[in-house]
Design goal:
Shape: globular
Strand order of the largest sheet: 3-4-2-1-5-6-7-8
Distance between the termini: 22 Å
Helix content: 25-40%
CATH class of the largest domain: Alpha Beta
Mean pLDDT: 91
CATH topology of the largest domain: Rossmann fold
Structural class: alpha/beta
CATH architecture of the largest domain: 3-Layer(aba) Sandwich
Radius of gyration: 22 Å
Order of helices and strands: EHEEEHEHEHEHEHEHEHEHEHHEHEHHH
Largest sheet: 8 strands, mixed
Low-confidence stretches: 1-8, 409-413, 416-420
Length: 420
Amino acid sequence: MTTLTDASDVAACPRPLFQGQRVVMLRFAPATGDARLWRTATALKQAGLQVTVVDVVGSRSFPAQELREGIILKHIIMPAWFIPARFKPWFLVKLLRANVLAALHLLREEADIYHSFVEHALPAAYVAARLRHKPLIFDSPELPLSDRAVQRWPRLLAIARQVLRYLIRRCQGVIAVSPPIVAFIEREYGGQHVTLLRNVPPYRQVERTNLLREKLGLSSEVRIALYQGNLQENRGLDLLVRAAPFLEPDVVIVMLGAAREPTHQKLKQLIAELGVAERVRLLPPVPYGELLSWTASADLGLTLFPPDYSLSIRYCLPNKFFEYLMAGLPVLSSQLDVIAELIRAHRVGVVEASRDPATVAATINRVIHDNKALEQMRQNALELAKNEFNWNREQFHLLELYQILLPTTPASQPLPAQEG
C-alpha cells in the first residue's frame, strides 16, 4: 500500500488519494474572495478529485464559467445579489430565489459528493444531494445563525433553527472552524462527529519587510499595531480609534482590509472627530498572495473583537490570527475564548480583557515597546505556525473526512496516522 511520507503533505503522495470522483462546491458569494473555500478546493484537487465550484454573484462582469488552477468555477449571476451585513426581511425572498436557481444548477452537474459553504447555501445543496442520492458536507466558517440582527426576529430565528437542525442532521459530514463551534453544532443542531478544520494558511517562511512604513511614509522608528481583515462593525475597530489619543507618539494603528459600509464611514468620522488621522491609518486590501509580506512589516497583530457582540465572535478563530503567527507577529487580543486560550498556552501574545480605550492603549504601548518580550513572542509564533498551525497539516482532517464519505475506488488509499 502506498502511504504518505508526511500525512500533512498531499503532494508527497506518489499517486492521488482519489481517482475520478467529482465534488461540487456551493457558495452564495464570489468564491475567489474566499480563502477557506479556495484552500479546500485546491487540496481536494491535489488529492485527485475533479472539483467544480458554483457560486452566486451579483455582477454581470463574471463569465458563466472559467478555469482557475485546474478548478472549474461556474457563476450563477443574480443582478444586485449580495448578503446584507445586517439581516433584513426582504433578503429572504432573494435567498429563496438563489436557492432555487442553485439547486437547479447543481442538478445539472455530475457529482459524487456535494460541499456547501455557510448555511445560506445549504438548502440548495441538500435538495441536489437528496435527489442524486449523494453525500453532503456542510462547512460552517462561523457560528450558524449568529447575526445579532436576526436575534430581533425571534419567531423567524426559531423557524430558521428548526430548518437548519433538520438539514444538518441529514448531512453526512459537518465541518466547523473552532472547538466551541464544533461543540455548539453537535449540541444544538444534532451534528454528528463534526470535523474541526481551522482557518490556517499554507506554511511558508515570511521575511520581515517594510511595506507598511514605505506605503504610509513612516520612519523606521515607528511601531505599527496592525488590524487586517474586513472593516466591519463586530471587529471592535471603534475601540482602536478611541484608544489612539492615548498611544505613545511613535505608535501607529493600521487597519488593512476591505471597507464595509456603514462601518467605514463611521470610522472615518470618528477619526476626524478625535483628530487622530495620523495615528490611525486605513489601507485597502492587498492581494491575498501578498498579504503575509505586508503583515510582516507590522510589530503587533490585533484581534480586539468585542466578546459580547455575539457567540460567533466569542468562539471565533479567524484567518488573521494564524496569519499574524505565520508572519511572526505577537497578538494582542480581547477575551475571546479560543484565541485567548491559545495565546496563553503558547505565549504568542497578550490578552486584554478591558474595553476601556485608555487601558487598551496602555497595553499596546507596554507590549509594543518591550523588545525582549516581543522578540520571544515572535519566535514562539513562528514556531507554532511552522509546527502546528498551517494548512499543510490541517488539510489532513479534510481528506480523512472525504475518504470516509466517498466510495472506495482501486486508486484510493487510506491516509496513515498523522505525525505529531
